[in-house]
Write a structure and sequence with these properties.
4 helices, Sulfurtransferase complex subunit TusB, alpha/beta, about 100 residues, Sulphur_relay_TusB/DsrH, about 30% helix
């Protein structure tokens, strides 16, 4: 399953709720304000790194926020075609807001 999160974990509990329901084959895509969770040296990046699933961040949203060079090692940055590829790869998806 692909879990897409669009809100900042510092403003909502969407990411926290998502992490409770992760399966071993799931993947997380952070978009919009949620990309801040993948930035170095914050509590959420550490939590995500321990989640045991692949974490993706949308490049356009990182660039819009001036965060492109601050992504944690081990997380993946995808462009819009990568976003589409993720949605095609996963038959089931859950959007967390």
């Amino acid at each position: 399953m692909l879990h897409t999160i669009s809100t900042s974990p510092f403003q909502t509990q969407a990411l926290q709720r998502c992490l409770r329901y992760l399966g071993p084959e799931d993947e997380i895509l952070l978009i919009q304000d949620a990309v801040v969770a993948g930035i170095e040296k914050n509590t959420w990046c550490e939590t995500l790194a321990l989640a045991g699933v692949k974490i993706y961040l949308l490049e356009a949203d990182l660039l819009a926020r001036g965060l492109r060079g601050q992504v944690v090692d081990g997380f993946y940055i995808v462009d819009l075609s990568g976003f589409v590829e993720l949605t095609v790869r996963h038959d089931t998806q859950m959007k967390w807001a």
